[in-house]
Structure formats: C-alpha cells, structure tokens
Amino acid sequence: MDEVPQLGDALPLVPTTSNWLDVAMADLDSVHADHLHCERKAAQSALSLIRSYPEHTDLVEAMARLAHDETRHVVQVAALMQKRGQQASYDHGDEYAAQLRTHIRKQDPARLLDRLLVFAVIEGRSAERLGMLAAALTEPKAAALYASLADAEVRHRDIFLSLARSIAPTSWRARATELAAVEAEVLAQHPVMARIH
Ligand SMILES: [Fe+2]
Ligand SMILES: [Fe+2]
Which domains does the chain have, with CATH numbers? Predict the structure, then answer.
C-alpha cells in the first residue's frame, strides 16, 4: 500500500470530554508506564494479523511496517522513561481493549473486518489523547515525542481503515460506524485513569 487515503471521517469517535486530561497530567509516570505496553501490544497485534492472514499480501506488508513503527515507539517511550529516571513496570492489562475485542465476530471474513476496525478504533482514540497530552505537556522533548506518536497513530488508523475498505468494500463503512458507537459505550463505562485508555 503506497498511498494511504485519509479515511478518519469513516470512524466518528466521540471526543474525549471527561476530566481525562487532568487525571493523566496528574500522574504522567503511570501514563508512560502503561503506554510502553500499549506500544508493545500494538506491535504484537499487527504481527498476529500476519500469522492469521498470510495470504493477504497487502496486509502482510502493511502490518510488518506498522509493527516496525510500534516497536520504534516502544524504544522512544522507554528512552523517555529512562530520562525521567522512571522504571518500567509490568502490564496491568487493558480492559478498554478487552471490551472492544468482545465485539469481534468469530467467523471470517467478518472476523478480519472487525479486527481491522477495532484496531482502527484503538489507534484513533490513542491518536486523539496522545495529541491532547502533547498540547498540554510543558517539557518540549516529551511534548514533541507525544506529538509524533499522535501523528503516527493517525496514519495507523488510516492504514487499518484502508485495509478494511479493501477487504469489505460495501460493508466496511457501516461496520466502522457501529464499532465507533460501541466504543463510545465502552468508554462511558470505563473509569477515567492515568493512561491513554
Ligand atoms: Fe504506536
Ligand atoms: Fe499505532
């Protein structure tokens, strides 16, 4: 996939309106510690799609490149933490992503479509909140890192949407709208925490 079109309009995520930014800014150590694992899991999820769908040539290439981006993000977040004198911690799980995954249908080809769209949702939400943090952070290097992560996650969202469109040209938009609405419900039930989601 050489050119990734801007497809974000197909995924109408509700804006973050809670006190999330205040909670996150009050405990940046927790945000970083969790985010290291978010980036790691994003890489693993991309690679897991290659394991499941090796016959999809476009998907294999796009996911290999995306996993590469995400592992670079792990390195960048780890470096930021090291600079802050902060130790990494174990992964405390991700109830938000787990809840979204319960909406992935079990049978292919619907399963592939849903996996791509759920990943697009997670990338889209991450991009929004990483951008909010970037705008709020006063330390210039941390702000620049979060801004660059936000830009990358927008691109990733569009890569997932583009793959979804190519495998389900007539149904991807309606399903993207459904999953965006599901995500709004999941967020509404989710406690506000010092992490990206
Ligand atoms: Fe990332
Ligand atoms: Fe990403």
Answer: 13-88+107-189 (1.20.1260.10)
> What per-residue confidence (pLDDT) applies to 133?
96
Residue position matching structure tokens 């016959």: 55
Could you give the CA distance from residue 45 to residue 147 in angstroms, rounded to a whole number?
Answer: 23
- How much distance in Å is there from the Cα of 70 to the middle of ligand 2? 6
For residue 18, how far is its CA from the centre of ligand 1 (angstroms)?
23
What single-letter DSSP state applies at residue 45?
Answer: H
The one-letter amino acid code at 130 reads L
What is the DSSP secondary-structure string of 131-180?
A: HHHHHH--SHHHHHHHHHHHHHHHHHHHHHHHHHHHH-TTTHHHHHHHHH
Q: What is the per-residue pLDDT across 32-55, written as a single tens digit (0 to 9) for each?
A: 999 999 999 999 999 999 999 999
How far apart CA 139 and CA 134 sit, in angstroms, is 9
Q: Which ligand is nearest to the CA of 156?
A: 2
Which listed ligand is nearest to 74 at the C-alpha? 1
Q: How far apart are CA 87 and CA 103, in angstroms?
A: 34
